[in-house]
Design brief:
The protein is of the alpha+beta class and 236 residues long. Helices cover 39% and strands 23% of the residues. The radius of gyration is 18 Å and the shape is globular. Residues 23-114 form the Cyclic nucleotide-binding domain.
């Protein structure tokens, strides 16, 4: 069983070039340093965003007060919530994970564009459908196959986003810490450390200070019952 590495596209591919250009022309762009909060969980955030450069993470606080990373977006991604209620609070906190340039357009302006432009409305609907599917797959990872399945799926998504095939396996150049992996699957760092150590002993993967090599993709796919989701969905 094989997988396509490094093939995940920015989610802007859903929009036509004309629609994307229209949105960018109407946006206000701002520089954000690493660690800046774009929006807090629970506050009103009536904006639709575009990440020109950099990266952001969507986090949600658990009952114990720890942060669970729900989504990660990078350059050329759109992000934001289309609420059915004007005052519905944001579901997540949005924080930059590197120096970023982010554009935004107000929800009111988006609503007006959708009313005027049938093609744009169709493409926005397609984009929201893809985001819904991404949310469903995240919940699948977290709930259905235990922490080993969630970790296996996370590693596969990392490979789909940034992996490079080599003679030894799939090389993932951005190797997060066990604590960061724990935030992605809702597990303590110690739990992730035990699983990663076991998989290293079994020869399923190796790690260095800068990269991770996945030697047995089939093993990971079996753990998480991989459904082979398309490149637009197979991402963190």
């Amino acid at each position: 069983m094989t997988m396509k590495c490094g093939t995940t596209k920015p989610n802007s591919f859903v929009f036509s070039q004309e629609t994307k250009q229209l949105l960018l022309e109407m946006m206000t762009f701002q520089d954000h340093s690493k660690g800046s909060i774009v929006c807090w969980e629970g506050e009103k955030c009536n904006k639709f965003f575009y990440l020109k450069s950099g990266s952001v993470k969507f986090t949600k606080l658990t009952k114990k007060g720890s942060a669970l990373i729900m989504f990660i977006y990078g350059a050329d991604d759109f992000f934001g919530e289309f609420d059915i209620d004007e005052v519905f609070p944001s579901s997540y906190s949005i924080e930059t994970t590197s120096d970023s340039v982010i554009g935004w357009i107000s929800k009111q302006e988006m609503d007006e564009l959708v009313r005027r432009d049938a093609q744009l409305a169709t493409e926005v609907l397609r984009w929201t459908s893809m985001m819904r599917k991404q949310s469903e797959m995240k919940l699948r990872d977290l709930l259905l196959y235990g922490k080993p399945g969630a970790l296996a799926s996370t590693l596969l998504r990392m490979a789909a986003m940034d992996g490079v095939e080599s003679a030894e396996g799939i090389v993932v150049p951005k190797h997060p810490s066990d604590g960061e992996l724990g935030q992605l699957i809702g597990a303590p760092r110690e739990t992730v450390n035990r699983m990663m150590n076991q998989w290293r002993k079994e020869g399923m993967l190796t790690t260095t200070g800068t990269e991770m090599i996945l030697h047995d993709i089939d093993f990971l796919k079996e753990l998480c019952y991989c459904e082979g989701c398309p490149a637009g969905i197979c991402r963190l």
